[in-house]
Amino acid sequence: NQNRVFNFSAGPSMLPLNVIEDAAANLADYEGCGQSVMEMSHRSKEFGKIIEDAEANLREIMNIPDNYKVMFLQGGGTLQFAMVPLNLLRASKKADYVVTGSWAKKAYKEAAKFGDIKVIASSEENTFTYIPEITKEDIRPDADYVYVCYNNTIYGTHYPYIPDTGDIPLVADMSSCILSEEIDVSKFGLIFAGAQKNVGPAGMTIVIMREDLLGFAGDTVPTYLDYKTHAENDSMYNTPPCFAIYIAGEVFKNIKNMGGVGALNKVNVEKAGKLYDYIDASDFYQCPIREKDRSLMNVVFVTGDADLDKKFVAEAKAEGMVNLNGHRSIGGMRASIYNAMPMEGVNKLIEFMKKFEAENK
Ligand code: PMP
């Protein structure tokens, strides 16, 4: 499709073109059943197969152990900021948070409504340009869980390690890195991710939760916000986000066909590596993030001149590379290069960066 732009948005973002085109071919008549997935009952045999296959394929590509539940929920990453404390503050009502950016901070503030929540480390004093090292000694021994945001979409940082929390469950927001790298799920008590970056359309949130953590929500927790409600009903307690689940399922199949998450990760390392190498070699662009903590998904850079940054974003847009502006809270540039961003898009961006540098130096 000649009209398609390279969309560097942090989310919603690009989806694999073959997935979109297959969905388009099936839009009015899904696999000969005479109706669209948008129209069919969520209790139908056809949709039953869609959601079962989606879960099975996600389990396969993420190698999710059997003692973990997979749920497809609504409410975005943001609702998880509340559901996590409502369900996991189960004994001491204490939880320890690592604040590495705006999303982690929002999660912390939400949790603070429900218990004794402590910030055990933060990189805010250095505008979130690095990931703090936390060890078991930093964690309160009676904490009910430890919370991290594994990839910080706005600042472009990513954990270079999985914090060792011992027996205390580790909760991770993986909204902007799920399926971009192989993850040992067994190291986490709960992982959640909004769909609209690496998974599918907005409207669906994946929750992967160790089974023994279910069932601790207090009596006052609304039924809908109790993970047990969704786990016991296979994400079908009420009408799920059917179309988003369908597309996500198609993306999971596509990942399998492409050789799995490991194969995608190799490409992601190469894509991000090219961009960071170019930025580091240039004296025109800078990346403020500590090298070992840099995200493969969100590459943040600046020229050091806010007006020039704006010009960059506008001129790139005119060449079919859209949404290169940094988050409205920090400005500068951000190239979000999720799984579906082809190498061709990264190459085109680097060519443009060279041209812009030559014209504006
Ligand atoms: N966590 C992270 C890491 C995010 O990047 C975002 C949104 N971009 C959110 C949470 C919030 O997600 P949502 O908009 O789905 O509520």
From TrEMBL:
Binding site for pyridoxal 5'-phosphate: 77-78, 103, 153, 173, 196, 238-239
Cofactor details (free text): Binds 1 pyridoxal phosphate per subunit.
Entry GO CC: cytoplasm
UniProt keyword terms in alphabetical order: Amino-acid biosynthesis, Aminotransferase, Cytoplasm, Pyridoxal phosphate, Serine biosynthesis, Transferase
This protein's pathway: Amino-acid biosynthesis; L-serine biosynthesis; L-serine from 3-phospho-D-glycerate: step 2/3
Cofactors (names): pyridoxal 5'-phosphate
EC numbers, comma separated: 2.6.1.52
Residues noted as binding L-glutamate in the record, renumbered to the chain: 43
One Gene Ontology MF term: O-phospho-L-serine:2-oxoglutarate aminotransferase activity
Record field: catalytic activity: O-phospho-L-serine + 2-oxoglutarate = 3-phosphooxypyruvate + L-glutamate; 4-(phosphooxy)-L-threonine + 2-oxoglutarate = (R)-3-hydroxy-2-oxo-4-phosphooxybutanoate + L-glutamate
Cited SUPFAM superfamilies: PLP-dependent transferases (SSF53383)
Family: Belongs to the class-V pyridoxal-phosphate-dependent aminotransferase family. SerC subfamily.
Subunit structure: Homodimer.
Protein name per its UniProtKB record: Phosphoserine aminotransferase
Species for this entry: Emergencia timonensis
Protein's gene: serC
